[in-house]
Amino acid sequence: MKNWRRSSPARGSATAGRAAAVFPTPGQVPPEHRLPGQLEQSEYLVGGRLRTWKGPMQEVFSPLLMRHGSARRRVRLGAYPLQGAKESLAALAAATRAYDHGRGAWPTLPVAERIRSVEAFAGAMATRRAEVVRLLMWEVGKSLSDSEKEFDRTVDYIRRTVDALKDLDRVSSRFVIEEGVFAQIRRAPLGVALCMGPFNYPLNETFTTLIPALIMGNTVVFKPPKLGVLLWRPLLEAFRDCFPPGVVNTVYGEGAAVVGPLMESGGVDVLAFIGTSRVADILKHQHPRPHRLRSVLGLDAKNPAIVLADADLGNAVGECLLGALSFNGQRCTALKILFVHSSIADEFVGRLAAAVDALPVGMPWEPGVWVTPLAEPGKPAYLRDLVDDALGKGSAIRNAAGGTVHGTYFHPAVLYPAAGGMRVWDEEQFGPVIPVVPFDDIAAPLDYVVHSPFGQQISLFGTGPAAVARLIDPLVNQVCRVNLNSQCQRGPDAFPFTGRKDSAEGTLSVTDALRVFSIRTLVAAKGSEANKELAAAIVRGRRSSFLSTDFIL
What we know:
Number of strands: 25
Mean pLDDT: 95
CATH superfamily of the largest domain: Aldehyde Dehydrogenase, Chain A, domain 1
Strand order of the largest sheet: 15-18-19-14-13-21-22
Distance between the termini: 64 Å
Low-confidence stretches: 1-10
Oligomer: single chain
Number of domains: 3
Largest sheet: 7 strands, mixed
CATH architecture of the largest domain: 3-Layer(aba) Sandwich
């Protein structure tokens, strides 16, 4: 390709060869990672029962193609229910009955008992690790190590949420007295929550809303993401067995067919959605009483990096590589555009291109694999269009085989120089395309951040305290996390995770999520002797779950 960076023919052809041979034959799949068979999922959970679906099904194909001679063929993984408005409204009705205007068994249950249910679920979930990890690899193309990390991090998130609620409840287990009035202030649930996660972290990101919603006493309807659906099947029995009937309900199908009716009904009290701002806007506008709707949204991001002239180049290249290409760049926190000072830009791009050339590519189970096939249908073609647009407007591909497409595999492309007017300047590529923009005046990248419709995070690379400090103060008013000499990321889960502008609504962290899915509520009384005796009798007799001084250890 004439736009590749100059490199030795041996290295260029070797890289291209690795990309072209990324898909194995069926016999080359290690036995421990083969699927036991196709998963024809006909079950769905509503009202505490696993029901059998007898209607139309949606077939699921893996992004991991298999070679048969010279042909590459799709692997059918199974199918799941393709439901409609009737089924989604039945799930909502079950959740509504279980909540019963806050009078249901789950929202009135003592916190300690809700915690026991969630802990039981975490234990049951842990026993299905191997199945879920295997399906993560086959459904979304995530590497074995990343799939294992996602599962383990999710179980750990559940346990951290339990610990955070215990801390929160301990603070609330005492009475406060102000101006002759005594009160107990606790957090109470909001109602019925609709939880929807993204395909790139179908397990972890869904649970970061689902678990805090549940543990705070809400009932839930959840829809698995469009990709990564079958991996939820091994967990349905655990949901059924660990929570009262109707507390957790599932819906499957096209979003417009099943989610639209839920929102239009007005029966959803909390919308927890991780996806695009365009879809979030549609969902919120469908609700007939938007002032009553609490929204918890994780949306678009176009996180930039700014690499100053005095940056540690080795660290900057390494962190930008991680930030731009971890899980093929399919993360909202990924670095999606890099601004590099002109004095070091050529060297930075050369090192970055060499690092990309050295990345192991292949199937998710291959040791050390970095770049894998893409799960979204049509995504390789979309990324190729972005690359071609940039090439037509003066950019060039700086790494060997960058931008080549082999079926569902897209080889990472380092584009330099990138500039305004290119589609990749504005569009969130959500894939392995890395635009690098040279700058002379720091006002240029700052202007980009200011005028961006997104405001999640930024990475800032530099070693001079004065220069870095001058940038921190304006940047914290544009984004919600400034990462010094490191990639953008969500963790640790105890840190607030949110965004400005069109990037988020509400804050998700282990502690913040508990607050997002609840509201401060209090029982108060004037400090008369009669009121004191009344409250004391209720507490001593343990007659109320809310008005209680029980201390959870």
